Write a sequence for this structure.
């Protein structure tokens, strides 16, 4: 195959084929779609509907659909109408703006007892993305009075709802599990990073008691910056972790104070025995120059492969959406930020996610990869 290293023709990073790297390809396509006129968007939507009508599935136009939702937050009503006729339920975001009559039909289906597990699962994900009051009430009813199909599912409607950025408790208390606004992290310079209200990778004091690795604030967020008013955080919060151990845990927690340091809550879990990162790895992790973008972007802007790092909005869950329960109050936490590992560390894969409980001042740090 002759897989020798060469340089991406656009950014110069090392790749093993001739041309431009996946990250540059994504960036180019994103810029193209961000420049679409309304007519171009309408034409693309028509093509998406045509493919669904003709083939009963979304294949060739699937990436275009995801990009239009993520980068332009298009209204999906027409696509939902077409897809429902063909009984197509993926990608779930098709039903983001599904018309009321279709949502009602979907809810009626869900109220039945005998349904195939995959069908129920798809239906609930689509409805979760829609997330209207009517969907919430139906999910609440189904949580309280489960239908027969519930026996075959690992989790109930309140967990499915988190896929759409919301959930509820047994008393019917509704909570959003995402922030409405989203800001991307963009390439800056080391000087600009000094002044950015959000920083990825900052060395912290101390070492991991388990593996000896230097501790790092995976992200620092200064809520005093007016762009971040939507987070309602009064000071600087630091998501501290052992960057060597935390990818192996199912989720780490740390306690923060808005004007001071954070304290890692070392739970009962697996730790790494060796420090794989060492000083070189820590240096790489903390020497990136990403800064907070100037303007907000649509909520799902970073919700795909190569979505990059972002604050607020929806993350890209490589496995299932994983909203942790706060170890102090037991309530669902709120998704806060995502870091795409390979944008800051060459050999790392997957994403890191940060969640927050502002009531208890606790952060959760999670890692997922394929
Ligand atoms: Zn490149
Ligand atoms: Zn460690
Ligand atoms: Zn809490």
């Amino acid at each position: 195959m002759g897989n020798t290293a060469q340089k991406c023709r656009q950014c110069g990073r090392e790749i093993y084929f001739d041309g431009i790297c996946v990250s540059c390809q994504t960036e180019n396509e994103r810029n193209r779609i961000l420049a679409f006129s309304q007519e171009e968007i309408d034409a693309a939507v028509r093509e998406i509907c045509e493919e669904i009508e003709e083939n009963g599935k979304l294949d060739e136009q699937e990436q275009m659909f995801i990009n239009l939702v993520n980068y332009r937050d298009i209204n999906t009503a027409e696509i939902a109408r077409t897809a429902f006729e063909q009984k197509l339920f993926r990608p779930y975001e098709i039903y983001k703006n599904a018309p009321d009559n279709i949502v009602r039909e979907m809810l009626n289906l869900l109220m039945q007892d005998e349904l195939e597990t995959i069908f129920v699962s798809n239906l609930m994900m689509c409805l979760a993305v829609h997330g209207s009051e009517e969907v919430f009430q139906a999910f609440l009813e189904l949580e309280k009075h489960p239908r027969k199909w519930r026996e075959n599912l690992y989790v109930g409607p309140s967990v499915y709802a988190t896929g759409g950025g919301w959930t509820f408790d047994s008393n019917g208390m509704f909570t959003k599990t995402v922030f409405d606004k989203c800001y991307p992290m963009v390439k800056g310079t080391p000087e600009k990073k000094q002044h950015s209200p959000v920083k990825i990778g900052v060395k912290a004091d101390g070492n991991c008691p388990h593996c000896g690795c230097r501790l790092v604030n995976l992200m620092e967020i200064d809520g005093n910056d007016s762009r971040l008013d939507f987070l309602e955080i009064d000071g600087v919060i630091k998501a501290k972790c052992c960057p060597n151990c935390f990818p192996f845990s199912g989720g780490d927690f740390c306690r923060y104070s808005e004007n001071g340091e954070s304290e890692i809550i070392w739970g009962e879990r697996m730790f790494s025995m060796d420090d794989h990162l060492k000083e070189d790895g820590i240096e790489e992790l903390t020497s990136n120059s990403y800064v907070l973008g100037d303007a907000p972007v649509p909520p799902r802007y970073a919700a795909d492969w190569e979505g990059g790092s972002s604050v607020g909005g929806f993350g890209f869950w490589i496995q299932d959406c994983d909203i942790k329960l706060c170890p102090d109050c037991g309530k669902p936490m709120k998704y806060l930020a995502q870091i795409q590992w390979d944008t800051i560390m060459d050999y790392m894969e997957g994403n890191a996610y940060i969640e927050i409980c502002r009531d208890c001042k606790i952060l959760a740090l999670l890692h997922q990869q394929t």
The chain has two domains: 38-176, 179-368. DSSP finds ten helices and 15 strands in the chain. Residues 208, 210-211, 213, 242, 244-245, 271-272 surround zinc ion (ligand 2) (CB under 6 Å).
